[in-house]
Description:
The complex is a heterodimer of chains A (122) and B (416). By secondary structure, chain A is an all-alpha fold.
Amino acid sequence: MDLMDLNEWAFIGVFLVIAALLPIVPIAMGRLLGPRKPNPVKTDTYECGIETVGDTWIQFKIQYYIFALVFLAFDVEAVFLFPWAVAYGGLGFFAFVEILIFLALLSLALIYVWRKGALKWT
Amino acid sequence: MLRDALIQAGMVPGLASFLDILLGVIVAASFGMVWVLIGIWIERKAAARIQNRVGPNRVGPFGLIQNIADAAKLLTKEIIIPRNADRLVYFIAPVLAVAAVILIAAVIPFSSVVIGTDLSIGILYVIAVASFGTLAIIMAGWGSNNKYALLGAFRSAAQLVAYEVPMVLAILIPVMIAGTLSMQGLVQSQHIWYIFVVPVSAVLFLISTQAENGRAPFDLLEAESELVAGYNTEYSGMAWAMFYLGEFMHAFFNALIFAVIFLGGWRGPGAEALPILGFFYLMGKAILVYLVTIWLRLTVPRVRIDQLLDFNWKIMVPLALVNLAAMAFLFKLVPPPNFEAAQAIASGEFEAAGGIYRLLGPEFMATLPQAGVMLLGNIVLLVGFAAALRWWSRRGRRVESLVDETDYTVEPVTAK
């Protein structure tokens, strides 16, 4: 089999490996060349000099979750908009009406979230 | 080219293809790393000038070798791993932060012939790959088990994710006009630079990439006066340097992408005939955009998280949505550019018109009516939106003054 058949994506595949290697090499070199003398004070959590109180791995504030949810709706929408944008030049005027309905539905969602006060940071 | 030569020399086709690809990958991937050495120097010098300082000027002529000295210093620094850190996540984060940015270089068209690979979904690939960077920041914050770092990661989760929406909606408009997602296709369709056709999208894109990159005025995720250093508080030595490198490269690649989408990429006089010239045009445009982002970064104060999210969801996203609908309408309103007719005029059926067409190029003249109408639409949109914002903010102030029932009169102090 010739790699050239899937040239585009084979390129991205090789790129992925090289792109990961480029930062790994300096970090590994840093580990090799730099000193390594850990002590309890040095490896402590950097805060203010006193031992950290309580667990750090806690639950996210719920507000972040709501923002993520709004984002998700818009991001899925964007996936649908890209094919439309590419094909739009060859489509009739009806394509415009369709996308207007689509955008109106989305704006409605945004207005709903806005009116509900979910966008207000507390 | 290399592949054919290797097969001619008697190599197995599969291996020859692999070597061909590998060479291309290494050249494209190391572009960012090499550019960093000069780019950081440009940024530090520009920052110094804005802040009325001199900047690096000791190591080498004009301090040009300062970055190499810094890299050597960072190599010999200890990488301190916090005792409580999740070691795997802790080390994947800096690798991902750089890898995500380097991956963008695969689809940037450096000139009419030099491009890593011209994916048919190029711009979608850029958006997808760049969002890995968000993941790296969340991993760094979570993995280092530090409260400051985690706060930075929380903020990034809300911020980086939010600003992707107006960015995508802004990119859609050039894609719609060009009718393609390929980066090379976007460049080739720009007979008139898109910044002169759809300036509103260009501004939306510039602001959201600045936020996406986490640079001032949107640098909440590493706000040093509140969070020590944000998500990279617990990183030191080369591991920390990778975050710095990733952020810097991302800033420059954002400028490159801006130049490709809105400033005509490698296009310029003589770039088709002499591809190397195209590379210099692209770099020149990208450096110009980059200097603008540095200027923004150093002159605008940091915003609060509620201001940041309000600005995105209540100003950027509505504007982007209205912009998309309006541009889609105008795009259908004006007949598409007729290249054959323009070519015919240029080849001399009408003497006077032919001269103008030959001077400015038939493609330029053919796209002119559409571009003109869209530019006009953009200006109307911008003025309308500014008026709406003015009304909204005034109304907000009026409502506030009605609600505010605090008694501001000072009680006279009476001695007991």
